[in-house]
Specification:
Chain lengths: 329, 372
């Protein structure tokens, strides 16, 4: 069977179900790299240029692992834009070229270009081009893609229920996960999905919060309309898709009475984060806000201390508020 | 209304002429100094890139000198630049400054829109007056660039480098002061004559292509004045970005002069096969272009964390290897001290010099062999 490798980084967290279904429907076997571990991180750091952001370095590590596996293709899409007049990040636009220039033992790269910034005319052509690597039957390709979209929707539905994208992928694949629902704090947690839901990059921040009996309230749980509505209150549209989701989500949570605080996890060296983090910090006025910057040198202990301090503060605040209310009421 | 705008190299000369032509009072920010750096760094998001910080410094200094209106360009991504003005406005307002801001949201859209935006900005100017102002600004821009190119060519060659620089500086000042086209032509004629009359070395001059992000390439204060530093080390620089070309390619749709842009995009293949924002693809395109023209080396520059340039940097190694051209990448931020960077530049020049003499020797050897 033809084997297609999909590195477990960057777009993986957002679109894995789509691409996995598509390739499997075309008769291929899909292979992923393992969850990010120290070896993947250190190899990524070795191969990528120093100045690039942590998630891209980690992605290099995943590609490297797959290169040593027996696969026929490696899937490295060029995701320029997934909606009108918006982008993800220049690095997403250049990633197949960057990878090609940095490895010399790469399997054949499938590098479909997805650019919906102006229209989606090209998308169909690109999908057929990829499908034709496996079959010449255009109808089969179309069917595979339709099925893929159905599966992606199912996955999106799961991720609305408070699971991280990483967990939602596992649930989508049939695994069972039970969330600890004992919590007294609700904290909005923002950041690029491939950072905060990658346990190595974010040092498992979501689970750490859960262990501290906080519910991590993530943007995937919000309705797209709500996000867009809040984001559109800015004088200029944020032209990074994920960035806009963060801004809109944070503004919305800032108004909600059930949210106790907001955390933004930014990656050191991330371009969009340096602006989006600033915008959110300025606009979040009602809730305690904490910006955490992570990179390959961030220590776990320091992170735990900061999270604990933040939670303590939120709890104190909460009990003060409650006693205030009862005093007056 | 007193208008200001951010610095970017010598472009202030043309922008000032343009705004004056629109009958506006202009406050040019003081040249970028340590103080500009300090103000900018102190009042910008920590991880923003250097151009944003220097913009902030420019604005604060200009507002303190009485400016009450800022003109700034915008854009629609994916590079951060498109969102600068938004962040800058909010920070300045929070600092307590009272000002208006005009954001020209059109670097990639239509010229006609831009002209209309400019006309609106002006104080009761007719369309004809706005066009006249634009034309005069363009003439100044071209003149300035001509002098920049002369400096790039003559500084490494001239035996009296101080004098060469002085003539250049003086010519800029005169162009800035000039009131009409005739004056500009006279200034050009006499400055060029002076620069060309300085005695030159007969040594072979090393040629280096300077590639990378537009602001860092155009603003000497953001790049430890790399053109002059290298010129004094006897290296001739050719840049990937000249402002008149950039305007011709991106705003005028190649209307005014023949454009090399398509060729550069072609050169970037197969290394960069799509637009990657900013000038990432052009950086690689020019790397290949300069390599084809047998340049001795490439220096890529950009602000630290510049995304399109990181894409390009990740690919430049492969280009260098396949096209056999030495290269280095330098990123600038507020911590880049000129001492450290000068050392790196000297080492690089040393290296390409040795490389070059090595090639010469090889040539000499084959000559001897063919004679024997
Ligand atoms: S958005 Fe930020 S973290 Fe993601 S690839 Fe771009 S620079 Fe890296």
């Amino acid at each position: 069977m033809i084997k297609v490798g999909i590195p477990r980084g960057l777009f993986y967290f957002y679109y894995y179900p789509l691409w996995k279904t598509f390739f499997e429907n075309l008769g291929a076997e899909v292979v992923t790299s393992s969850e990010t571990n120290n070896k993947i991180v250190s190899q990524g750091i070795d191969i990528a240029v120093d100045e690039t952001c942590f998630p891209v370095k980690v992605y290099y590590g995943h590609v490297n692992q797959l290169c040593n596996e027996n696969i026929d293709y490696i899937f490295i899409p060029r995701i320029v834009s997934v909606e009108l007049r918006s982008y993800i990040c220049p690095k997403f636009m250049g990633i197949p070229d960057m990878i090609r220039a940095s490895f010399n033992n790469l399997p054949y790269v499938i590098d479909i270009t997805i650019d919906l910034s102006r229209n989606n005319k090209e998308l169909k052509k690109e999908i057929i081009k990829v499908g034709q690597l496996f079959t010449s039957n255009k109808k089969a390709i179309n069917n595979a893609y339709q099925n893929a979209i159905i599966e992606q929707k199912r996955f999106n539905q799961i991720s609305k229920e408070g699971y991280t994208l990483d967990e939602a992928i596992k649930l989508w694949e049939g695994l069972k996960i039970k969330l600890n629902t004992k919590n007294d704090l609700k904290i909005g947690v923002f950041g690029h999905g491939y950072s905060i839901y990658d346990q190595a990059i974010s040092m498992n921040i979501i689970n750490k919060l859960r262990e501290m009996e906080c519910q991590a309230y993530i943007p995937e749980m919000l309705d797209k309309k709500i996000i867009e509505k809040e984001a559109s209150t800015l004088p200029k549209r944020v032209f990074w898709t994920i960035g806009r989701k963060m801004v809109g989500g944070a503004l919305h949570m800032d108004k909600r009475t059930d949210i106790d605080g907001i955390i933004y996890v930014s990656c050191f060296g991330c371009g969009p984060d340096s602006i989006v983090g600033e915008v959110i910090e300025r606009k979040v006025k009602n809730k305690p806000f904490m910006l955490i910057t992570v990179d390959e040198h961030t220590g776990e202990a320091g992170l735990v201390t900061r999270l604990e301090a933040f939670c303590d503060m939120l709890r104190r605040r909460k009990s003060n508020n409650e006693s205030n209310i009862s005093a007056h009421g | 209304m007193k208008v200001t705008f951010p610095h970017m190299g010598n472009s202030y000369i043309a922008i000032k002429a343009l705004l004056k032509g629109l009958k506006l009072e202009v406050v040019v920010p003081p040249p970028i100094s340590n103080k500009t750096y300090e103000l900018g760094v102190k009042n910008s998001p920590e991880f923003a890139c250097l151009p944003l910080k220097l913009n902030m410094g420019n604005f604060i200094e200009a507002l303190d000198q009485g400016a009450d209106t800022i003109v700034m360009a915008g854009g629609w991504g994916p590079c951060r630049f498109g969102y600068y003005a938004q962040v800058e406005r909010d920070i300045l307002r929070d600092l307590g400054y009272d000002f208006d801001i005009y954001i020209l949201e059109s670097p990639d859209s239509k010229l006609t829109e831009l002209i209309l935006q400019l006309k609106d900005l002006g104080q009761n100017v007719s369309l004809a007056e706005a066009l006249k102002a634009l034309r005069f600004a363009w003439i100044k821009l071209k003149a300035v660039e001509q002098m920049e190119k002369k400096l790039e060519y003559y500084l490494p060659r001239s035996l009296d480098k101080d004098k060469t620089e002085k003539i250049y500086e003086k010519s800029l000042k005169d162009i800035d002061d000039a009131n009409n086209k005739r004056e500009i032509n006279q200034i050009l004629k006499s400055s060029i004559k002076q620069i060309e009359s300085i005695e030159c070395t007969n040594d072979k001059i090393l040629k280096v292509g300077l590639i990378g992000e537009i602001y860092t390439i155009l603003e000497p204060a953001s790049n430890v004045n790399i053109v002059k530093t290298l010129g004094r080390l006897g290296v001739e620089i050719t840049r990937s970005t000249y402002l008149t070309d950039w305007i011709n390619d991106h705003i005028l749709g190649g209307y005014i002069k023949k454009s090399n842009h398509k060729n550069i995009i072609k050169c970037a293949k197969p290394y960069v096969n799509y637009w990657v924002g900013g000038h990432g693809r052009e950086t690689i395109g020019y790397a290949v272009h300069f390599a084809k023209q047998k340049y001795d080396g490439l220096i890529q520059i950009g602000p630290l964390t510049c995304m399109p340039e990181i894409v390009a940097q990740s690919i430049l190694g492969k280009v260098g290897e396949e096209k056999e051209i030495p290269h280095m990448t330098i990123y600038f931020d507020e911590q880049s001290g000129s001492a450290g960077i000068n050392t790196r530049l000297e080492a690089f020049v040393d290296m390409i010099q040795r490389n070059d003499s090595f090639v010469l020797k090889e040539d000499a050897k084959s000559e001897i062999l063919s004679w024997s």
